[in-house]
C-alpha cells in the first residue's frame, strides 16, 4: 500500500507542478496581452483622439476670431453712425504689415467679406443686418464645436479609465 501511496503522492506533486507552470505561463501571456492592449489604447489616444482634439480646438478658435472680427466691424459701423462721418482717413494694411494712408471720400457704403473670398458692398444698415445673422450662425457653429471638443475629451477620459482598469491602478478620481 505504501508504494502506491507514494506513487499517488508523486503523481499529485507532478500534477500540481504542471498546473503551477501552466498558470505561470498563462499569467505571463495575460500580462503580455494586457501590456499590448494598454499600448494599443495609448496609441489610439495619442495618434487619433489628441490630434482630433487639437483640430477641433483650432477650428473653434478660428470661429471665435471670425466672430470677433464681425463684432469689431459692427462697433466701427455704430461709431461711424454716431459721429455721422462721411469722409475718412485711415491706415490700410497692404500686406506683410506694410501700411499706407488712404482717404475714403464716401464712407456710407462699405465692402464686407462674406466668405470664400467674396466681398459685398453694403450700406451701414445692410451690413449690420448681415453681421447679426452671421454672428448667430457663428454662435451655433461655436456651440457645435464646443460640444465636439467636450465629446473628444470624454472619449479620452474613458480610454484612460480603461487603461487604468487594465493596469489595476486605483482610481484617480478624488471626488
TrEMBL record:
Ranges for the region named Disordered are 1-34
Name of the protein described by the UniProt record: Uncharacterized protein
Q: Which InterPro entries match?
A: Prefoldin, Prefoldin_subunit_alpha, UXT
Which domain of life does the UniProt lineage start with? Eukaryota
Lineage of the source organism? Eukaryota, Viridiplantae, Streptophyta, Embryophyta, Bryophyta
Q: Where is the composition biased (Basic and acidic residues)?
A: 1-19
Which family, according to UniProt?
Belongs to the UXT family.
Q: Which PANTHER family match?
A: MEDIATOR OF RNA POLYMERASE II TRANSCRIPTION SUBUNIT 10, PROTEIN UXT
Which NCBIfam families did the record assign? prefoldin subunit alpha
Amino acid at each position: 500500500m505504501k508504494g502506491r501511496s507514494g506513487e499517488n503522492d508523486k503523481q499529485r506533486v507532478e500534477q500540481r507542478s504542471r498546473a503551477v507552470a501552466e498558470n505561470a505561463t498563462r499569467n505571463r501571456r495575460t500580462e503580455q496581452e494586457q501590456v499590448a492592449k494598454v499600448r494599443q489604447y495609448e496609441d489610439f489616444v495619442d495618434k487619433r483622439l489628441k490630434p482630433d482634439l487639437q483640430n477641433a480646438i483650432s477650428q473653434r478658435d478660428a470661429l471665435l476670431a471670425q466672430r470677433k472680427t464681425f463684432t469689431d466691424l459692427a462697433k466701427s459701423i455704430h461709431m461711424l453712425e454716431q459721429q455721422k462721418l462721411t469722409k475718412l482717413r485711415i491706415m490700410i494694411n497692404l500686406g506683410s504689415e506694410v501700411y499706407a494712408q488712404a482717404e475714403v471720400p464716401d464712407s456710407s457704403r462699405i465692402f464686407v467679406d462674406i466668405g470664400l473670398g467674396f466681398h459685398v458692398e453694403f450700406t451701414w444698415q445692410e451690413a449690420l443686418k448681415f453681421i447679426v445673422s452671421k454672428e448667430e450662425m457663428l454662435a451655433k457653429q461655436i456651440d457645435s464645436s464646443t460640444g465636439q471638443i467636450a465629446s473628444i475629451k470624454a472619449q479620452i477620459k474613458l480610454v484612460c479609465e480603461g487603461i487604468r482598469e487594465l493596469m489595476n491602478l486605483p482610481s484617480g478620481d478624488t471626488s
